[in-house]
Specification:
The chain has about 200 residues and is an alpha+beta fold. It has two domains: about 45 residues, no CATH class; about 150 residues, Nucleoside Triphosphate Pyrophosphohydrolase (Alpha-Beta Complex). It is about 20% helix and about 35% strand. Strands 4, 5, 6, 7, 8, 9, 10 and 11 form an eight-stranded mixed beta sheet that branches. A three-stranded antiparallel beta sheet has the order 1-2-3, with no helix packed on it. A hairpin with a 5-residue loop joins strand 2 and strand 3. The longest helix has 13 residues. The two termini are about 35 Å apart. This is NUDIX hydrolase. It comes from Laedolimicola intestinihominis. Keywords: Hydrolase.
């Protein structure tokens, strides 16, 4: 089995840092592997703690009297130099659970009020996002949203447009726009759900 011989922190940023890993492959070859992480220090990396504590939360919220729309954000991302469709999301603050983080983040990014639902742990436990580059993991929360869209909670660096997308618009977005993978999969679920039974996939046996 491959192993890690040494880990070195190479940056000192607030939200994201880089770590260099001196590694030995299963065939004995030595190499250098780069990992981005929300961890503040080497001891906090998941490769050391082996605890999958979620760094962030992703919010799948339905809107409207008949829950016929999905709350999306269209956000400018420096990594692609353009806009991408995503679910509202954000970091889990110390002392928060997933639902509390979801309520806070949806309010900050959209102005809407989130009403989370309880689901089986296998649907809400944290999963890893882009494991080839980072140890980041996120939990998903599900529920309904209501209220009035507002930009009042946005930070200066956030360039976000709130989109309430029905099935027609979702089909267009999937065909024509940049979409995050996690958001795209959930949108595909929504397209083929029974409109009378929102979040049907969460209750399938």
């Amino acid at each position: 089995m491959s192993k890690i011989e040494k880990v070195t922190k190479t940056t000192d940023n607030r939200f994201l840092n880089m770590y260099d890993l001196d590694v030995v492959t299963k065939t004995g070859h030595k190499g250098l592997y780069h990992v981005a992480s929300r961890a503040k220090d080497v001891s906090d990396l998941k490769l050391n703690t082996h605890v999958n504590k979620p760094d962030g939360v992703i919010i799948y919220a339905l809107y409207g009297e008949k829950r016929e729309q999905v709350v999306l954000i269209r956000q400018y991302r420096f990594s692609i130099g353009g806009y991408i469709y995503e679910f509202p999301a954000g970091l889990v603050d110390e002392g928060e659970n997933y639902h509390q983080a979801g309520v806070r983040e949806l309010k900050e990014e959209t102005g809407l009020t989130f009403h989370p639902i309880e689901v089986d742990e296998m649907y809400s436990r944290p999963y890893f996002t882009t494991i080839g580059m980072t140890d980041e993991s996120c939990a998903a929360v599900y529920g309904a949203a209501d209220g009035v869209i507002s930009r009042n909670g946005l930070e200066d660096g956030e360039e976000i447009e709130v989109v309430l997308a029905d099935r027609t618009e979702i089909r267009r977005i999937l065909k024509e726009e940049n979409v995050s993978l996690m958001c795209a999969y959930m949108m595909m679920h929504f397209l083929y759900e029974d409109p009378e039974k929102p979040f049907g996939f969460l209750h399938a046996e």
